[in-house]
Amino acid sequence: MATSNERSARWNRYWDKKSATYDREIGFFDRHLFGDSRQWVCGQATGDVLEVAIGTGLNLPFYPDTVRLTGIDWSEQMLDRARARAADLGHPAALQQADAHHLPFDDASFDTVVCTFGLCAIPDHTLALAEMTRVLRPGGRLILVDHIRSSTGPVRAVQRLLELVTVPLGGEHFLRRPLDHLRAASNLDIDRVERFTLGLVERVVARKTATT
Questions:
Q1: Do the beta carbons of residue 158 and residue 170 sit within 8 Å?
Q2: How far apart are CA 30 and CA 32, in angstroms?
Q3: pLDDT tens sequence for the chain (212 residues)
């Protein structure tokens, strides 16, 4: 049986290889399932912004010019493409390889933390959410969008079948729902939730409780 480190290394290799075709493949889902979700998320980002699992940088065109953007991903090949995209757009961004389970930033470092379609493939997404909250400043916003377990029974059955392949192959899950964990957090208030496309897609804005 593969150890946790062996699985992580295998998944990292998978996403490195996937970087070559990722934009084309995710583009189909952006057009047919996800709608304007990237614009919706990035348009609400303000101040010092951290994007977790920035991938190839598909969100870069949608950030306001006023933000100061930092992005992390565990795939160097994804990051190479994100760096090239940032350079082409003239959009300054500090991009670095890092593990979402252990973000290399001090507590309360960012005004906004963003993650789009990334929590599905982070091995321990609950730990990643806790880390995202940790690096948020009090009053800062956590803005998420991801595909989640559907609200429709037949679709959930298909998702379970898909996970038999996608989890061993690339660590990609279809039955998660990050909102459940955010609601259970004592230091977050949920500001906004939108769910659509057969309950497959969910967009969430949560605010870190301000200290008194």
A1: no
A2: 6
A3: 456 677 778 888 889 998 999 999 999 999 999 999 999 999 999 999 999 999 999 999 999 999 999 999 999 999 999 999 999 999 999 999 999 999 999 999 999 999 999 999 999 999 999 999 999 999 999 999 999 999 999 999 999 999 999 999 999 999 999 999 999 999 999 999 999 999 999 999 999 998 65
Quote the tokens at residue 43.
Answer: 């348009």
Please tell me the pTM assigned to this model.
0.95
Among 85, 92, 100, smallest CA distance to 66 is for 92
Whole-angstrom distance, CA of residue 51 vs CA of residue 54: 6
With H, G, I as helix, E, B as strand and everything else as coil, classify residue 152.
coil
d(CA 204, CA 179): 7
Contact of 100 with 40, CB cutoff 8 Å: no
